[in-house]
Amino acid sequence: MAANSNQIVVEEVIFLGTGTSGQIPSVSCLSVPRPTCAACVDSVKPNSRNRRRNTSLLVRARVAPKSPRQDVRTHSNGNGTSVNGDAVHTVDPNLSAAAAKSHVRNIVIDVGKSFYEGAIRWFLDYGITDIHAVVLTHEHADAVLRLDDLRDWTMYRDDQPSLPVFLDPPTMAAVSRLFPYMVDETKATGSGLVPKIKFCVFDPTQPFNVLGVEFAPFVVPHGKNCTSLGFRFSNVTYLSDVSDLDEKAYEWIDGSDIFIVDTLKEVSHVSHFGLDEALAASERIRPAPRQVYLTGMCHLMEHHSSNKKLAKLYASGSIGMPVECAYDGLRLDVRDKSPTSLVAAERITASIRQQQLRPTVAAVKQAASKAQAEAASVATAAQPADAGRPIWADAHGRVQAALTAELQSRSAEVSTADLIAMSEKP
Ligand SMILES: [Zn+2]
Ligand SMILES: [Zn+2]
C-alpha cells in the first residue's frame, strides 16, 4: 500500500444524527391533545433512541506513527516518485496547526439544520474538542444549513484560522447562494465575524483525500432534479440520501464491511429509499457486508419495533446480514477489515495516488522543499506512545478526568466503577 495510506487509520464513526430533514419528534405529533405517534412520544424521554437529528456522521481517524521509511522525502527522481519508488509525501495544505499537532483527525459529514444540537450533545459526551474538516453530501438544508456554526471552530483560534470544507460543484453553487459572505468576506455585514471556510471543491467522479483519509465519492439520484453523494472510506460506505442505485455505484460499495444507508420509512418515497429498497441494496453488495445500519429515518420507523422486525428477518434467513436502525450517538469501531475490504481500499488508494502523481516536476520539488521546512511540526502528529489505543480511550479518559475533578470539588465519594458508569454513553 502507498506510504500515504499507511499513515492514517479510520478507527471509529459516531452518528451525530440519524433522522430525516424534519427531525424526530415532529412538533405536530406532540401538540395534539392525545399524542399517539410511538416514535415521537418516546423521543422526548431522556436518552431515547427515537430522538433523531438530521443525518450527520463524525469520522475519526488516527495518525499512525511514521516509520523512518515513511518520512518526508526530499529527493525526487523528477516524475513524482521518491528514489525508492514511493509517492513523494507532501504537506497537506488543508492541515491546520491544530490538526498537525493532534494524532486524531475529526471529519464531519454534513452540517444540517440540527448540527449544533448534535454537536453540543455528542461532542461533550465523547470528549471531542476539534473538527478538522467537513465533507458535504449535497445541497439540501439538512446537509448544509448550519455551516454558519462552524465559526465556533475557527474564531479566535490561531491554530485553526480556517476550516476546510469539501464539496462538489453543485453544492458549492448552492452554498454560494445561501451564504455569500462565506465565499466573499467583503459581503459580511455587522461585526464581520463569519466562519472562515476554505472551500475545497472536488470532482465527484474521482476519489479525494481529506487530511490523509481517502474518500471515494459516487453520485446517486436523490429525487426530482437532485443528486447526492455516497462516500466510501476505509471499509465503510455511507449513503445518507438516495432514491436509486445503479451498478456503477457498487464498484465502490462492494467490499464494504459496514454499509450505512438511507431508509426514510417502510414504503418507498420519491427522494429516499424505503425499507425494501435499502434491504435490496444491502443484499446486492458482494460479499455481504458484516453489518448494515439504516439512517435518515422518519417517525414512521419506530426504533425498537423496527429493530425487532429486522432481527426476525435476519434470524429467519430472509435477509443475509444483520441490519439495524442506527441512532443518534451510536459509536462504531470500524477498524476490523475483511480481506475484500482491504482490496477495495487499495483501489481507492491507487486511484488517489495516480492523481497525486500528476503535478509537474516543479510543483513536486516545491512541495518537497516546503515539506522539509514543515517536517518538524508534522512529526509531532505521530505519538508512538498512544499507538494502538482506540480514540475513545482518550475521550473516556478526558470525560472521567472531568468527572473526577467535578466530584472532588464537591467532596463526593464515588467508586471508580461509578465514574466509569457515568462516563459511558447512554
Ligand atoms: Zn410522529
Ligand atoms: Zn436531501
UniProtKB/TrEMBL annotation:
Pfam families documented for this protein: Lactamase_B_2
InterPro entries assigned to the protein according to its UniProt record, in alphabetical order: Metallo-B-lactamas (IPR001279), RibonucZ/Hydroxyglut_hydro (IPR036866)
Domain Metallo-beta-lactamase, chain residue ranges per copy: 105-295
Biased composition, class Polar residues, residue ranges: 75-84
Segment forming the signal sequence: none
Lineage: Eukaryota, Filasterea, Capsaspora
Region (Disordered): 46-88
Annotated protein name in UniProt: Metallo-beta-lactamase
Natural source organism: Capsaspora owczarzaki (strain ATCC 30864)
